[in-house]
Write a structure and sequence with these properties.
The structure is a single chain. The protein is built from 21 helices and 21 strands. The chain is of the alpha/beta class. It has 4 domains: 2-189, 3-Layer(aba) Sandwich (Dimethylsulfoxide Reductase, domain 2); 191-235 and 324-385, Rossmann fold, CATH 3.40.50.740; 237-301, Dimethylsulfoxide Reductase, domain 2 (3-Layer(aba) Sandwich), CATH 3.40.228.10; 425-540, Barwin-like endoglucanases, CATH 2.40.40.20. It has a 6-stranded mixed β-barrel. The chain is globular, with a radius of gyration of 24 Å.
Length: 541
Amino acid sequence: MAGLATTFGSGAMTNPINEITEEAELLFLIGTNATEAHPVIGYKMRQAARRGAKMIVCDPRRIDLVDEADYWLQIKPGTDIPLLNGLMHIIIKEGLEDKEFIAERTENYEALKETVERYTPEYVSELTGVPVEDLYAVARLYATTDKAMIFYTLGITEHICGTRNVMSIANLAMLTGHLGRPGTGVCPMRGQNNVQGACDMGALPNVYPGYQAVTNDEIREKFEKAWGVSLSPKVGLKIPEMFDAAHEGKVKAMYILGENPVLTDPNANHVRAALEKLEFLVVQELFLTETAEYADVILPAASFAECDGTFTNTERRVQRVRKAIEPIPGQANWQTICQMATRVGFPMHYEHPSEIWDEMASLTPSMAGINYNRLEKGSLQWPCPTDDHPGTPYLHKGKFTRGLGLFQPADHVPPAEMPDREYPFLLSTGRILYHYNVTTPYSSGIAELWDKEMAEIHPEDAERLGLETGQQVKIVSRRGEVISAVKVTERVQPGMIWMSFHHSATPTNALTSDALDPTTGTGEYKVCAVRIEKLPEAANA
């Protein structure tokens, strides 16, 4: 969110999902495997391509949507910024930029021109591996198409330069005027369900609900008055910073709700060690997860099917969620939180989720018009500032949220760790269709669809190592090691290995780097160095 918030003033998806099939003439996918990570949206992308919309796919791995694409830019992992700068270089050199949009609606354009001037097609081709002729073709196609949408996901953000990657995408869209209209825009698809809603509600260390800064005295005083407490003006810790602080003894207790960082966070061994150093750990969960095993107290959690409340999807659409059954633990998660808060000295006496939502909306200008009663009648997209406002399908019409869009030029930032003689393979990670994060072990039905990790390697590498599909190998990084079966496939590049992180028996994040994006604290899950060790024949018997 930080990259778009800086350039546009809002980190949210600019345009609605239905415009994929109803408006868009070109879909530019970069760092997103939509058919597996967002299958409903991925299906709509297929529909759009089959009705005649053009499609560009930029991904190091051959994802399924490559079959629908007019162009596949198979970049080297970690070279998104050079690629985007190279496309902008061509667009400017050929006079294809939207001069009127730039002059009327943006600032800092000259700085962008100066930066991308250095990214010639030949230089970019050398860095990214993309042929020069493809760079020209894609730049011209995107710039000259009237309605073009860009989509990205974790393949863009899970790098040490993730924020700069996002800013570069925003630069490209502003350069060509592909914003503030139907069928255009920059569309981040959130990595997990209700990520948008959680962030909207203030589940970030630097903001209250509605992205209102905790450092702003006027805003903070508003919340202090509403809650009857004194609030700190200091920005809190990001998740990786929490675990670092636990190592240092500065954080002594944690309350973890519905999260399994032992398997999901980078450098899992570092996370385990941090949890062991805590004086007190509370985990509220549906299952006895790897994280819950470290807990001093485990509280029962309720699932989505047991809860009333709201859900906000990737297009900023707030929707009602209605429980199908009464909570098996006897109460919903919000009720447990209220009881805990009351016992530690801050009374919370809400009777229903509607009271929580309406209090939040009353303090949040962008959602002031979305009350619980309106949601009973149908969903609404924020911003929705008044009770009679219809909601906002697309953002930045006429002007950006911040006023003028801010070009933020970025130079290439190499990954924190690249292959070398000791660790000659580049590991990248991602999701598999049907699976969701690390819940796979708790669903026998899902496990039947893909019951074990299959690390993908290129046939050239398999032949050199004497490996066949199904054989077990040891994959080793500077931080840990795992045992996995391999799958020999041309979906990945030579020298690359690709793995999911769904299977607890193969904890992939024991391998991944704990290098972080300095702005967001997001781990570099998409690039780290590993080696592959062939196991004795007995291990594969």
